[in-house]
User: Which sequence fits this backbone?
């Protein structure tokens, strides 16, 4: 390996490690008398609101905040982001200038029924959010004064809302909820029972974390573009990923996953197989330098990295062994890709969810091969909904109905899933370390045998 390449990778790794180490010592900003007191202030909506059945969640970038103490108004520190929950209507949007009031508290971690703890503090801290209001009273003042990037983000989020509205209007519930979960990663509209059905059959990852789904989109693009000349494949593939990211809102999760998947896609289309892994590592290191906390607290980043890595390592070997599946319409490759990603992300999902689906293998075989074409149909339904083309809606509805039928039918089977007691994350790390050791040992043996 050339000296310049070694220096380049060393600099990236050192920067990522330094950023990660310093991020572990981030101190929560002190808000003085406003803590656990009813506070009021002015701020702007800093992210696209998250709508749920019980209300909406907004991130408010505080411009000015105060509280009352001893019959006087006490000024509190500002320049922070507060996560607030308020009633569902009126609905707010990114960039709105608002008045807010409510009791300000420090977020706390919570546990599931089986004792699994979720580091909610860390999950919010990765986005510089250290305080929240459980029941906030929010009123809109104006649309706010945004710069170029604010206007661009506002446009993208508005496009996402229009995209989801097209799905709701064309598909109806619960199909539009599943469609939005697959493509945009919105799961709130699915309802508690349907979400539990997806957990039971081992498919919750397709509607909870969009990083997995974006990996599926990138691989489907790679397969569709492989017959084209290399340059055309790279150009169309890049435009396809950008268009996908734009039409589903361009949020932080989507941007990270699209960036990671796009680099792997370009490296693979350019037929430089060794560089596929290097491209993935480059994307991951760049994202860690930009925000190191996603390594520890962003499940979407973790899942998209594992899914893409599994796709690179396992898809081709699995495809060679699936001789019983015809190659027509890319069926063998699609099944191999879904198996590769599923195998590689399963230990991580099992650690997070604590539920082992006994029928998960069967359901994955019946459903996952159809996910790429379903996502394409949903994407075209949402995109063409702006100009009313019903054909794609019919296709999407048929595919979504089939997948919901499979999920709901198999979820009713007695003992379809068992709960796994909480276990250490080191078992997950150990699995991937052992897997990579065996993989590289087999690769070395294969090279030795080929050279004889």
Assistant:
């Amino acid at each position: 390996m050339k000296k310049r390449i070694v220096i380049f990778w060393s600099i990236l790794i050192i920067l990522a490690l330094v950023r990660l180490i310093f991020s572990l010592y981030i101190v929560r900003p002190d808000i003085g008398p406003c803590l656990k007191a009813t506070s009021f202030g002015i701020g702007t909506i800093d992210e696209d609101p998250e709508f749920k059945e019980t209300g909406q969640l907004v991130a408010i970038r505080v411009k000015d905040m105060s509280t009352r103490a001893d019959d006087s108004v006490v000024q509190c520190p500002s320049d922070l982001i507060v996560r607030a929950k308020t009633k569902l209507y009126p609905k707010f949007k990114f960039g709105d200038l608002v008045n807010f009031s409510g009791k300000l508290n420090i977020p706390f971690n919570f546990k599931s029924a089986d004792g699994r703890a979720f580091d909610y503090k860390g999950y919010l801290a990765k986005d510089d959010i250290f305080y929240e209001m459980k029941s906030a009273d929010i009123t809109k003042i104006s649309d706010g004064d945004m710069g170029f990037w604010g206007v661009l983000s506002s446009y993208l989020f508005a496009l996402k809302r229009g995209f989801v509205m097209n799905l709701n209007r064309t598909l109806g519930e619960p199909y539009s909820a599943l469609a939005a979960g697959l493509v945009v990663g919105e799961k709130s509209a699915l309802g508690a029972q349907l979400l539990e059905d997806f957990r039971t059959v081992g498919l919750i990852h397709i509607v909870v974390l969009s990083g997995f789904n974006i990996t599926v989109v990138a691989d489907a693009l790679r397969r569709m573009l492989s017959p084209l000349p290399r340059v055309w494949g790279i150009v169309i593939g890049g435009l396809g990923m950008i268009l996908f990211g734009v039409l589903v809102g361009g949020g932080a999760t989507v941007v990270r996953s699209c960036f990671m998947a796009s680099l792997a896609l370009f490296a693979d289309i350019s037929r430089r197989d060794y560089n596929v892994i290097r491209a993935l590592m480059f994307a991951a290191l760049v994202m860690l330098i930009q925000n190191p906390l996603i390594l520890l607290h962003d499940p979407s980043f973790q899942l998209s990295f594992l899914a893409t890595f599994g796709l690179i390592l396992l898809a081709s070997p699995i495809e060679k062994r699936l001789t019983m599946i015809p190659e027509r319409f890319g069926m063998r490759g699609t099944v191999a890709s879904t198996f590769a990603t599923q195998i590689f992300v399963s230990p991580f999902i099992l650690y997070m969810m604590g539920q082992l689906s006994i029928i998960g293998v069967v359901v994955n075989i019946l459903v996952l091969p159809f996910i790429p074409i379903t996502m394409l149909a949903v994407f075209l339904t949402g995109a063409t909904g702006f100009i009313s083309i019903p054909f794609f809606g019919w296709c999407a509805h048929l595919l979504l109905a089939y997948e919901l039928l499979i999920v709901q039918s198999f979820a009713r089977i007695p003992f379809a899933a068992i709960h796994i007691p909480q276990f250490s994350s080191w078992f997950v790390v150990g699995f991937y370390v052992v897997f990579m050791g065996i993989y590289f040992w087999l690769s070395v043996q294969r090279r030795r045998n080929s050279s004889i």
In short: The CA atoms of residues 442 and 448 lie 10 Å apart. The chain has two domains: 32-145, 165-421. The chain has a mean pLDDT of 77.
